[in-house]
Amino acid sequence: MTEAQKAHAGSLVADSFLHEMEKSLIPLKGYATRLGEISEDERVQKYQSYVDREIGRLIVRGQDMTRYLTDTFAPAVRPVGLREVLKDLESRVWVDCRTSGIAFTLDMKGECTINADEELLRGAMENIFRNAQDAMPAGGTFAVSVSPADKGKVMITFADTGTGITADPVKRVFEQFYTSGKPHGAGLGLAIARKIVDMHGGTLGAANRKDTPGAIFRITLPTS
Ligand SMILES: Nc1ncnc2c1ncn2[C@@H]1O[C@H](COP(=O)(O)OP(=O)(O)O)[C@@H](O)[C@H]1O
Ligand SMILES: [Mg+2]
Prior knowledge:
The protein is 50% helix and 20% strand. By secondary structure, it is an alpha+beta fold. A hairpin with a 4-residue loop joins strand 4 and strand 5 (153-160). Helix 3 runs parallel beside helix 4 and helix 4 (118-135) packs antiparallel against helix 5. It is globular. Adenosine-5'-diphosphate is lined by residues 127, 131-132, 135, 160, 162-165, 167, 173, 178-182, 185-191, 215.
């Protein structure tokens, strides 16, 4: 086997392991939420939120690792509705929004079709959301908005009301293994997100908000 073949085989194993893990972790997260709903007891609430947080972390780390390993993956691109991708993102993170006190808002007029591997692209957006969640430990707003950009392009903006980005310059957040302000960061989420957006012929940028504390991430993508 060549090195590339070995890397590919390794990534397939990692990927199937991740899928197996997720199949259990996602319902587990749901059970923990149900437990929290059954009892108002403060301790139950507290430990429920810990279980929830750790499971979420494990899922994200697993995804980060496999995506990093699967450098060889080929995106399965097809025409998809952007609204569908964003709605899907919302439903994947709604439990987290509820437990973390985050309001998820979506501002999109009409529909827009893009050529994308929707799972990969949603994964990139989920990484942006997870970081926003980490930056808003006391809750806040995660506002997603879609607007037309230059000709043939669409811009998706993700604005949070968290601590803002402390990296200097801000673009350092896209470096592999750059992590700051959290105990268990791997520093891969945004490097992967950028790689995914690049694959789609788009751009991913970051900035701090001017109107209020918080960060803004912008994805531009070609429309089809
Ligand atoms: N929404 C955000 N608000 C504040 N800081 C952020 C935000 N998103 C990313 N960052 C910063 O960028 C770093 C890199 O993010 P990422 O690549 O996802 O790695 P990780 O989340 O594992 O640290 C984070 O550790 C954090 O310091
Ligand atoms: Mg991250």
